Amino acid sequence: MHEPLVRTDFSPAASYTAVSPLTFHPARTPLFNELHARPFPVLQTPSCLAHLVLLREEPSNSAELQHLQKLCERFAVAAPSAESSCYYQNFGGFELRWERHTEFSTYTLIRQSDTQPLFNASPLTLLPADWLSQLPGQLISALHLELATAPASEPDPESIRQYFEGHRLISSQVKEHKARLWSAYRIHNDGSGRILIHNRELNPCQSGRLVRTLLEMETYRMMLLLALPAAKSIAPELKTMDQQLATVIQQINQIAGLHDERRLLGELSSLAARIEKLISDSNFRFSAAQAYYQLISNRLEELREQEVAGLQTFREFLQRRLTPAWRTCEAVRNELNDLSRRIDRASELLRTRIDLTIEAQNQSLMLKMDQRSHTQLRLQQTVEGLSVAAISYYLVGLTKHLAESAKALGLIDNSALVTGLAVPFCVTAVWLAMRRLRRTLERSEPS
């Protein structure tokens, strides 16, 4: 009998081995460890970081792993395994963090800062130039981040602007005034963006979490904006298709015949095919943009910003520019779905009209067939009357021959009288026989 799962002695030597005989779900361990995936870096102040985001050109990560293995061979460090989706390794003078996401991969280099001026040397210079130039994928974002000790007195924005090549600054106090952020959100001469953190009271773990939040915001911002060109390119086509749909709907009330109905139905089918292709091509991009927008909003909440007089906060700056971009994508996405529904309704209306036209044609055809049936019935009755007369005529003729034969034999005296008397009997017999035959046929017909 197994031991109970409840610990009863609470002594240091107590063991929890009672669960070992149980059958574990095959995904239990990776699901449990998912909370610990992609941990934040522990950063000492001062530190310098370079962050690269590359869009993958192939779904597998084999090319990236092979490229990382070449770097590991150069520095004689442990390489990532073939199943790895993230890799963190200290290369001596710097730390490299590689993470593979659904659409992109990130490379983050961390170096302890020295006495060099801010943004004077990127950690990327520590990597072999040939290896860096052959990174698989297309660069979508590059960021240079400096974590520095806050000066004793609050710095003047003009003195900080020199580190951002004279661009207009945005700044805010974060983490309950334990740090201050500076940025211009511009691409500088080195091809990357820049963020400066003045650390007052953040410990290494808090600094790492703040840096990870800022890096994720920059990554998700660029990934969100990937949907904007698609939305802008789709919008004019949507307007054209909307006008075409309006024209078709107006023509529905002016239909002259089945030919017009078929023509309009063909136009609606063509519009429906085009709109479904647009939805298929853009649905993933717009859905991803929605997810990235929500992630950015969550990361902005984590900063807990406080405004600095005269400067925009990161929230104000990003939301003022990202929200319209996302609303544009959302509007185009909604317009795609709305146009699809309107085309379906117009097609259904036109099909209903076509069905009614066909039903009216069928009713007219059935009426003509009914008229033909009545005509055929009258003709049949006429033919039956003629048939009775013809058959009776032949019967009377046979009777006349029989009567003349009987007179020649001396059996009767007047053959004409017998022939005349046979006429009504023959006609009545033939009429009754024809009537019985018609009733028999009517009973045998399926209902």
Keywords:
nine-stranded mixed β-sheet, disordered N terminus, alpha+beta, Methane Monooxygenase Hydroxylase, Chain G, domain 1, 447 residues, 3 domains
Outline of this structure?
The protein is of the alpha+beta class and 447 residues long. 56% of the residues lie in helices and 13% in strands.
> What is the tally of beta strands?
9
Determine Rg (CA atoms, Å).
Answer: 46 Å
Main-sheet strand order equals 2-3-4-1-5-8-7-6-9
Work out the count of structural domains: 3
Order of helices and strands: HEHEEEHEHEEEHHHEHH
Instruction: Look at the helices and sheets and give the structural class.
Output: alpha+beta
What is the averaged pLDDT score? 85
Please describe the biggest sheet, giving its number of strands, its sense, and whether it closes into a barrel: 9 strands, mixed
First-last Cα distance? 76 Å
User: Helix content range of the residues, please?
Assistant: 55-70%
- Low-confidence stretches are 1-8
Q: Give the strand content.
A: 5-15%
What is the count of helical runs?
Answer: 9
Q: So what's the overall shape?
A: rod-shaped
